[in-house]
Amino acid sequence: MRVWYEFKRLIGKPVNIVLIILLPVVLTVASIIFFNGFGVSNVKLGVYNLDDSALSRFTIKLVMSFFKGGTLRYVDENYVELLQSGEVNAVMMIPSNFTDALYNGQKVNIDFIPSPVDLQLSVGIYNVLNSIFNDLNGSPFFNPQVLRYLFVSNETPAPQFVPKTKNFKTDFGNLFSPAILFLSVIFLLLAIGVLTVINDRELGLITIFKVNNEKWYKYSVVKFLALFFLGLFVSFSVYLVGNLFGVKIPFSIFFPLSLTAIIFHSALSIFISSISPNKAVANILGISLSMFFFFTSGSITPVTTLPKAMFKLASYTPSYKLTYALRNYQLNNIGISQELKYLIVVSIIAFVVMIFTVRKEFLKK
């Protein structure tokens, strides 16, 4: 009965119930939809060719081979309008002296003009092209004689990359969507949980509990269970919504991982609430940790490029373990038992630390 009362305090007014359920669901759906379009294979690259020669056309074919052919289009001198509207993510301008410069052995510059719309895609295109052209620098590849042969010869097929793993997907939606099922619940628990104890302190309820000989461990468990059931409910909601939008994860894999995530972050949020001197500090800590868990999860931001010490730290966070376990299962059909054991241990530690932190709250004069 007490847990139900605390649960009702968490969700507050009926409108809060809608928001608590709706926000993680909207976050999940939005992530699936938005990140499905975030990938090099979906870019729109414009080509403004000022040198309509065989060699320049071959260079365009070379660029087309790096991307899906349908994503590349020819543009004219009005390309600025296309860039400003986002109809193309970038424009590659082949200069009029392209062929002459190659025949004379001179270095030629191909202008790259990014769009202010979806700049991250422009950066992705530039990095791909710049890296490949740099690798070809100094090789005979752009020798006109070699290019002429390559341009007229098409009987030799190019090598093709074939993923060995069964569920390897190259679009960002498939990479990010499974992880958001966990991250949305983590964000919600931290946002709500960091205010649970501090609200009681500021309202004078903890003082009343102490006068009435309320047991500190009972108080801790009640607070924890209220957050736990909230996290469980939201977790099931985003799982069902994810299934509707094609994020297929076996429930036997999702549920134990989700359970440990809820336990750890419920305990963590109550711990933060107990040690924070006021609501402002609690909210700042909650937001900071939410962003930290997002970046260290490896769901969309690379963690292997971090300094060695930072990567080591990131690899021990529950958000990273959750994402890694899920992806390893998806790609290689490897069980989650190793990561699950780690998550269970850190969840138990977090719960014990939370209990004794609340105890200190009750011991204050």
What structural class results from the helix and strand content?
mainly alpha
Largest sheet properties: 4 strands, mixed
- Principal-axes geometry comes out as elongated
What's the pLDDT, averaged over the residues?
76
Low-confidence stretches: 152-165
Tell me the distance between the termini.
29 Å
Question: What proportion of the residues is helical, as a percent range?
Answer: 55-70%
Number of domains: 2
Using only CA atoms, what is the Rg? 27 Å
**Biggest sheet, strands in spatial order?**
2-1-3-4
Output the helix-strand order: HHEHEHEHEHHHHHHHHHHH
Count of strand segments: 4
Give the helix tally.
16
- What is the percentage of strand-forming residues? under 5%
Protein architecture, described:
This protein is mainly alpha-helical. It folds into two domains: 2-36 and 171-363, no CATH class; 42-152, 3-Layer(aba) Sandwich (D-Maltodextrin-Binding Protein, domain 2), CATH 3.40.190. Helices cover 67% and strands 5% of the residues. The chain is built from 16 helices and four strands. A four-stranded mixed sheet has the order 2-1-3-4, covered by helices on one side. The chain starts with a helix and ends with a helix.
Q: Helices and strands in order, then pairings?
A:
Layout lengths: L1 H10 L2 H23 L8 E5 L4 H13 L5 E3 L4 H7 L4 E5 L3 H6 L7 E4 L4 H18 L7 H9 L19 H22 L2 H8 L1 H7 L4 H29 L6 H25 L3 H18 L11 H7 L3 H15 L4 H27 L2
Parallel strand pairs: 1-2, 1-3
Antiparallel strand pairs: 3-4
Helix pairs in contact: 1-11, 2-8, 2-11, 8-11, 8-12, 8-13, 8-15, 11-12, 11-16, 12-13, 12-15, 12-16, 15-16
